[in-house]
Design goal:
Layout: E1 9-13, E2 16-20, H1 22-30, E3 36-37, H2 45-59, H3 69-77, E4 111-112, H4 115-118, H5 139-151, E5 174-178, H6 183-196, E6 227-228, E7 242-245, E8 249-252, E9 259-260, E10 274-275, E11 280-281, H7 291-299, E12 303-304, E13 314-323, E14 331-340, H8 346-375, H9 389-409, H10 422-444, H11 453-471, E15 497-502
C-alpha cells in the first residue's frame, strides 16, 4: 500500500466520501473540496494538520505549489524514494512510511502493538474510551496512528517524546492563524507561510544546517544514536519511535532521544509560542486556553509568536493541544477565536486586552471579598476568621464560573478598539463585568450558611455593591443596556468557540 499512488484515505466532500491517495488530498485541498477526514480521530487532528502543512512546504520548497494531483505526486516524490511512502516495506534496510530503516535487519526483539492500544490517550477508566474498540484496523487507521505518535502523541505507552515538545510529559502546542476554517484554504495558507518564512524559523533557535533529510523516518536508526538539532532542516518531521510493520505491527524501545540539542523544546515549531521570559516553548494546559494566559500569549510581551502568525491575516486563531499527565486523564483542548493581526492601531488592541484582563482581575477580587464576608466563620475568640474548608471549594467554583463568564465575552469587540473611544471601551467592558458579577453573586448566595443568613447576606451585599460603585465608574455610562448580552454577527466581534473535552 503506497500513499502516493493507492487510495488509502477517506475524505469527506460535498458529494460524499472519496478514497484517495496523498497527492489527491493536496489537490483536493487546493480546490477547497475537503470537508473533513472520515476516519481521523479527534486527538489526531492537530498532528495531521501539522504533517500536511510541513510536508507540503518541504515538498514545494524549491518549486511552485502544484495545481494538479500529478504535480503534487512529483513534488512529494522528491524528498524521499518510493519505499518511504509504503506502509509496508519488506526490506528492513529501506524506510517505510513513518518507519525508519532497521540496521539490525530483524524484528525479533520488537514487541507487537495494536492500533487502538498504542494511540489512545491514557485514561483513568477503560470505559471512557475502549482501548481495543477497533477490531479490524485499516491501513488508513495505521497511517493516522503513525503520524500522531511520531509527531505529537506523548501519551502512547513505551514511546519517546517528539522533540517539538517541552519535556517528556509535555504537549505539543498548536497556535495557528488562518484566514478560513475551511481545511483547504487553511492548510494551503500554512504551506505558503512556511515556504515564505522558512529561513526565519531558526532565527531565535539554531542555525539549521540542512545536513539531514527533513523526513526523519527515511534515516536509519538503531535507537542508540541521536541527531543534533542544528543538522536538521527547519521544517523537519520528527520520528522518535522505532515502529515497523512485519508480520504484525511492532515497536521497540530506544535508549536515547532521536533529536537532541533543543533548549526547553525550542525547535522552531511553526505553531509553538515561546515564553521569552523563561526561555522555553509553551507547555500548554487548560490555563493556556483561558483568557488570562491566552491574552498574554496573543497580546503580551512574554511570548514570541510562531511563524504561523508571520503573515498579516484577518480570520481566526485556532488553539489546540492534547494535554494531560502521566497516567492521568487527558484532555483534547481547542479554541477558535476571531482574530486579525492586520488591523491598524495594533497598539490600542494590545492595550485594550491588557486593560480587560486587569479589570477582570479586579472584578474577581470584588466577588472573592463578598463571598468571604458571606461565608467566613464569625469568631469571637481572637483568632483569624476564614472560610471553612467545607465552603472553600464552593467559593472556588463560583470564582471559576465567574472567570468562565468573562472568558465567553473577552474577545468581543476587542478588535474594534482602534475605532472606538476610550470611554466607550471602558463602559462596554465594565458593564459586561458588572453583569457577570451580579449574576454570579446571586448564584453564590445558595452557599450562605443558615446561621445568621440574612445578616451574612446583607453584609456581603453591602460590600459588594459599594465596591462595584467605586471600582467600575464607567459601567453606569453605558447607554445600551442590552448590548453586552447580544450575540454579534459574523465579524470579529462574535464570541469565540471553545472546546475542552476528555478524549
Amino acid at each position: 500500500m503506497n500513499l502516493l499512488h493507492d487510495p488509502v484515505f477517506t475524505v469527506d466532500t460535498s458529494d460524499g466520501p472519496e478514497t484517495c491517495s496523498l497527492p489527491r488530498i493536496y489537490a483536493m485541498l487546493d480546490d477547497d473540496a475537503v470537508e473533513g477526514f472520515t476516519r481521523l480521530q479527534a486527538h489526531q487532528k492537530q498532528a495531521w494538520h501539522c504533517f500536511l502543512a510541513q510536508l507540503g512546504a518541504i515538498a514545494t520548497e524549491n518549486r511552485d505549489i502544484p495545481d494538479s494531483e500529478e504535480g503534487w505526486r512529483d513534488a512529494l516524490s522528491a524528498p524521499a524514494n518510493e519505499s518511504a511512502w509504503n506502509l509496508y516495506t519488506e526490506d528492513l534496510s529501506k524506510p517505510a512510511f513513518m518507519q525508519p530503516p532497521v540496521p539490525e535487519d530483524t524484528l525479533d526483539d520488537f514487541d507487537e502493538i495494536h492500533v487502538t492500544e498504542y494511540d489512545v490517550p491514557v485514561l483513568s477508566k477503560n470505559h471512557a474510551l475502549k482501548t481495543r474498540r477497533m477490531h479490524d484496523p485499516t491501513p488508513e487507521n495505521w497511517a493516522y496512528l503513525l503520524v500522531n505518535v511520531q509527531t505529537t502523541g506523548f501519551y502512547s505507552p513505551g514511546g519517546r517524546r517528539t522533540s517539538r515538545m517541552n519535556g517528556s510529559y509535555g504537549s505539543r502546542p498548536f497556535f495557528g492563524l488562518t484566514p478560513s476554517l475551511r481545511l483547504g484554504p487553511w492548510i494551503l495558507h500554512d504551506i505558503r507561510t512556511l515556504k515564505t518564512h522558512i529561513e526565519e524559523i531558526g532565527k531565535h533557535v539554531v542555525d539549521f544546517q540542512h545536513e539531514v533529510p527533513p523526513l526523519l523516518w527515511t534515516v536509519p536508526w538503531d535507537g542508540s544514536e541521536s541527531i543534533d538539532l542544528e543538522k536538521l532542516h527547519p521544517l523537519y518531521i520528527d520520528c522518535p519511535r522505532r515502529i515497523r510493520q512485519g508480520d504484525t505491527w511492532k515497536k521497540k524501545s530506544t535508549s536515547t532521544e532521536r533529536v537532541t540539542g533543543d533548549v526547553n523544546g525550542q525547535t522552531g515549531d511553526p505553531w509553538a509560542p515561546v515564553n521569552t521570559d523563561e526561555n522555553k516553548v509553551l507547555n500548554p494546559s487548560r490555563n493556556a486556553f483561558e483568557y488570562r494566559q491566552l491574552s498574554d500569549i496573543l497580546f503580551g510581551d512574554s511570548y514570541r509568536h510562531p511563524i504561523s502568525f508571520k503573515e498579516a491575516t484577518k480570520g481566526y486563531v485556532v488553539c489546540r493541544a492534547v494535554t494531560g499527565e502521566q497516567g492521568g486523564r487527558v484532555h483534547n483542548l481547542q479554541r477558535v477565536i476571531p482574530f486579525s493581526n492586520r488591523r491598524r492601531g495594533w497598539d490600542k488592541i494590545e492595550k485594550e486586552a491588557k486593560t480587560r484582563v486587569k479589570k477582570a482581575e479586579t472584578a474577581a477580587d470584588v466577588l472573592s471579598h463578598a463571598l468571604y464576608l458571606m461565608l467566613k466563620d464569625d469568631r469571637n475568640d481572637g483568632k483569624q476568621e476564614r472560610v471553612p474548608d467545607r465552603l472553600q471549594k464552593g467559593k472556588n467554583r463560583q470564582l471559576s464560573a465567574f472567570h468562565s463568564r468573562v472568558d465567553d465575552c473577552f474577545f468581543r469587540k476587542l478588535f474594534d478598539a482602534p475605532d472606538v473611544s476610550e470611554d466607550h471601551r471602558n463602559a462596554f467592558w465594565e458593564t459586561i463585568l458588572v453583569g457577570a458579577l451580579q449574576t454570579q453573586f446571586e448564584n453564590a448566595k445558595q452557599l450562605c450558611p443558615a446561621k445568621d443568613r440574612w445578616h451574612r447576606r446583607a453584609r456581603a451585599q453591602s460590600a459588594f455593591d459599594g465596591r462595584i460603585r467605586s471600582e467600575f465608574t464607567h459601567a453606569k455610562k453605558f447607554t445600551d443596556n442590552n448590548e453586552h448580552n447580544q450575540t454579534e454577527g459574523n465579524g470579529l466581534g462574535q464570541p469565540d468557540g471553545r472546546v475542552v473535552e476528555d478524549v
